[in-house]
Design brief:
CATH class of the largest domain: Alpha Beta
Structural class: alpha/beta
Distance between the termini: 27 Å
Mean pLDDT: 93
Oligomer: single chain
Radius of gyration: 19 Å
Number of helices: 10
């Protein structure tokens, strides 16, 4: 649980020498104020409370590709109507401040929404994929892994909506294999696609002098790996989480709302 002293320590750290090489990791909680449900949170729409462990898998896509697509398209539609909140905007401003002062900054998000990009973030890794992209299921197709994607806006979902079936699932324009969402499924590895940039994330974690988690439950592989590296290197780690959950002893938790605390960082520490 954070104290006023903990918040002041955090504000001092981000503008001091510790912040010269910074890694920020965001989870679903950073987009909650934009109206998007979390995965494992206590909010009523939390995806984790429903059927994500079944439907968010490659196995489910192989079994019922039309159901998989329809489930994701429903989620994507809700996310497309969202707008960046004050936390997203503050992180983009923080990145620009770091750049102006010759300091390192990398924002790693577990979110597939496009709110960080809309807010202006550029030093960004979307380690779980992005809702504005699809990709071919055939490896080494130019539109598929290890590096290819297709803009979601170019995919025609009309036949799928009109008559949901395996036959109406969108096909790759190059090889006619099925297209799939460009997301990391629970039964897949970070090395499945180069766009996830997992090695870049680990490299930054190994060289950062300060790591800040925002709105994450620490329940996925990337957060575990980064936390372990931080513990090994004994560098400061903060977690901004209004629930005040303590994920590990070496992580200082700030029980604050990101959309409140992060603008304060910009206004007071980075002015």
């Amino acid at each position: 649980m954070s104290t006023s002293k903990g918040v002041e320590e955090f504000l001092a750290a981000v503008s001091g020498p510790l912040g010269e090489a910074l890694l920020v990791v965001t989870g679903a909680g950073v987009s909650l104020a934009s109206g998007l449900p979390t995965f494992r949170g206590t909010d009523p729409g939390a995806v984790w409370a429903n059927d994500v462990m079944e439907k968010g898998t490659l196995a489910f896509f192989r079994r019922a590709p039309e159901e998989s697509w329809l489930w994701y398209l429903q989620r994507f539609e809700r996310a497309r109507g969202a707008r960046p909140n004050e936390a997203h905007l503050a992180l983009a401003e923080w990145e620009r401040w770091q750049e102006r002062h010759g300091r390192e900054f990398l924002l790693v998000t577990q979110n597939i929404d496009t709110l960080h990009e809309q807010a202006g973030s550029r030093a960004l890794v979307k380690v779980h994929g992005s809702l504005d992209q699809a990709r071919c299921t055939r490896r080494n197709c130019a539109n598929g892994p290890p590096s290819g994607t297709v803009p979601m806006a170019s995919v025609d979902f009309g036949p799928l909506h009109a008559d949901p079936s395996r036959e109406t699932v969108p096909r790759c324009p190059l090889c006619r294999s099925r297209l799939r969402p460009h997301v990391l499924w629970f039964d897949e590895l970070y090395t499945e696609h180069e766009a996830y940039q997992f090695e870049r994330v680990l490299h930054q974690a190994r060289k950062s002098s300060l790591i800040v988690f925002v709105g994450t439950s620490f329940s996925v592989g990337v957060t575990a790996r980064i936390s372990a590296l931080a513990l090994k290197r004994r560098i400061p780690v903060f977690s901004i989480d209004p629930a005040g959950t303590q994920p590990a002893p070496h992580i200082q938790v700030l029980a604050e709302r990101a959309e409140v605390l992060l603008p304060r960082v910009v206004a007071s520490s980075l002015s």
